[in-house]
Amino acid sequence: MPHNNTLDQQKSIHETQDQRDARKRKSGASAEKKPPPRTGARSQPSRLPAQHLSVDEQESDLEVRPRFLAPDYFGSQKLQGQAALITGGDSGIGRAVAILFAREGADVAITYLSSDDDARETQRCVEAEGRQCLVLQCDVKSAAACKKAVAATVKTFGHLDVLVNNAAFQKHADSLDDIDDERLQETWDTNLGGYFRMTRAALPHLAAGACVINTGSVVGLRGSAHLLDYAATKGAIHAFTKSLASNLLPRGIRVNAVAPGPVWTPLNPADLPAEKVAEFGKKTDFQRAAQPEELSPAYVFLASSTCSGYITGIVLPVTGSVGAI
């Protein structure tokens, strides 16, 4: 009977694979730890220090410095003559984005909360690319401060073409009981409220062809047991991105988001205890955290109308894992 032939064939496949598995277990091959895969332009650090940052320490205090210069990335005038405003541009992803925007021909304004030295380092790197960099201290929880930052950007550069909402606050919590109303308000008011306020301040100056890029997160896609309030704000940012994209498309303004996975920036060493920092990112398929320079090209792609002029309302995952969404 035909079905007997099929059954015999399937049985043979099972037995052959079982024998292979047994040989691997016996030889210990299945227990070998493979090195993190390399798919990018250069090898990236896979081991991170067991280091905790205090809230007032800066990116320059990290034992392993984040990589943000993207030396293998060559600009091609994708943003030539444009002006961009990046919140949280003093370090991490914001700094890396500022540098590549400048390499693509844009003048850049960055806002920061308190890290003066980090902000000046970003400014130095942007100016080394031959573009202007305006450094603005700004608390995005203040509507007046957001308006002031936008006004200073427009006054200095004469226009505003790209807004990157990136400033964020994060602190882990083991249970919902750990998140009181004061802490909840701080997280929501910074992460989501800051995006609303800065975008609202920028809108009168954004013409057709301009764009807004929001920084979301993989935890806004899949949740996080220990980042309840932070993950909730990131999920809301994704919804805000899609909603605002629909709202602004008739005006010719695109709105998109990038959802990073674990990235080596001051945010997580300031949040996690040292022993967990050493394990940060190892659960991704890449077995390591990303470097900021691996995220910044995604922002260039979404900022450039020549690359993404037909794209709005997306949340682009750069997570280091398959099946993040």
Tell me what you see in this structure.
The protein has a 7-stranded parallel sheet with strand order 3-2-1-4-5-6-7, sandwiched between helices. Helix content is 41%, strand content 11%. The chain is globular, with a radius of gyration of 22 Å. The protein contains 12 helices and 7 strands. The longest helix is centred in the N-terminal third of the chain and has 26 residues, at 2-27. Helix 2 runs parallel beside helix 3 (116-128). Helix 3 (116-128) links the parallel strand 2 and strand 3. By secondary structure, the protein is α/β, with parallel strands linked by helices.
Give keywords:
single chain; 325 residues; alpha/beta; 12 helices
Write the layout of secondary structure elements.
Elements: H1 2-27, E1 83-87, H2 92-103, E2 107-112, H3 116-128, E3 133-137, H4 143-157, E4 162-165, H5 181-191, H6 193-202, E5 211-215, H7 219-222, H8 228-248, E6 254-260, H9 267-271, H10 274-277, H11 296-303, H12 305-308, E7 315-318
Helix pairs in contact: 2-3, 2-11, 4-6, 5-8
Structural class: alpha/beta
- Mean pLDDT, as a whole number? 89
DSSP strand content:
5-15%
- Tell me about the largest β-sheet: 7 strands, parallel
Helical segment tally?
12
Strand order of the largest sheet: 3-2-1-4-5-6-7
Termini gap: 45 Å
Can you tell me the residue ranges where pLDDT is under 50 for at least 5 consecutive residues? none
What would you call the shape? globular
Tally the beta strands: 7
Radius of gyration equals 22 Å
N-to-C order of helices and strands: HEHEHEHEHHEHHEHHHHE
As a percent range, the share of helical residues equals 40-55%
